[in-house]
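Worked Example 4.2. Consider the chain below.
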Amino acid sequence: MKQEMNLWEAIEGRRSIRSYDPTQELPEDVIEKILKMATLSPSAGNLQAWFFYVIKNKKIKRGLVQAAYGQEFLAEAPVNIVVCADPDRSGSKYGSRGRELYCLQDTAIAIQNIMLSATALRLGTCCVGAFDEEEARNVLNLPQGLRPVAIIALGHSRESPGPRPRRDLKEVVKVIK
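Applying the procedure from the previous section yields the following structure tokens:
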């Protein structure tokens, strides 16, 4: 594998990849390293209200494509990681705010760690949030209480998209002194 990127390179170089080389499998140690980085994410009360499903099964990936309104690249990617929130885990300490917000914030941070870790390893990802939650739940046979938040396609990219436009800092930052 090529030399890993540093954090700055990974942040600047991360792109949403929608074309994968389905012939290049990902070694288990690489997937484990990426997931380890996800579990190092900060979380409200250190409750770690997340759960990760690693999907390699072609039939289940096809089901996720259906749940994600036909986003075919999910089936092409060697691995899909479905990141789920555990609202009850957060709610046990923080009540409704934990169930409705903190568990989602926690999973969002873990998702970012997954994508940046994969980018640092020179792999491609795409975070899919557009999917029918109930259909995804049924495809994965999720236990009651877990909420699927994102499906992340993961694999070797067959494309190199350039940077997308970003809003200027002046548009999105207000300094209050």
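The mean pLDDT is 96. The first helix runs from residue 7 to 13. Compare this with Example 4.1 before moving on.
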